[in-house]
Amino acid sequence: FAISSFASCRFLRFRLISFLNHLSSYLRFFFQQRLVQISCQRVSFQLELFFLGQLSFQVLVSFQGQISFRELVFYQLQVFCLQIS
Asked: What is each CA distance from 33 to 21, 23, 27, 58, 76, in whole angstroms?
């Protein structure tokens, strides 16, 4: 998503982490009563955003084998925090 050129990097980080936290909470609630796993060759997640039309942050997380939705979202959030801290 796009933000105004007056937004700070700190605000950008706050908004994105809040969004991923919300998504993570939603998925945990949705799959709370189930053991959801994916058996696959590869699962990729990519998040790309542009800051001031110049800088871009990109997160690409790939998995092989079996994963659960909760692990996937948590790992995405962790990697994302490491990328833009």
From this structure: 20, 17, 11, 32, 22
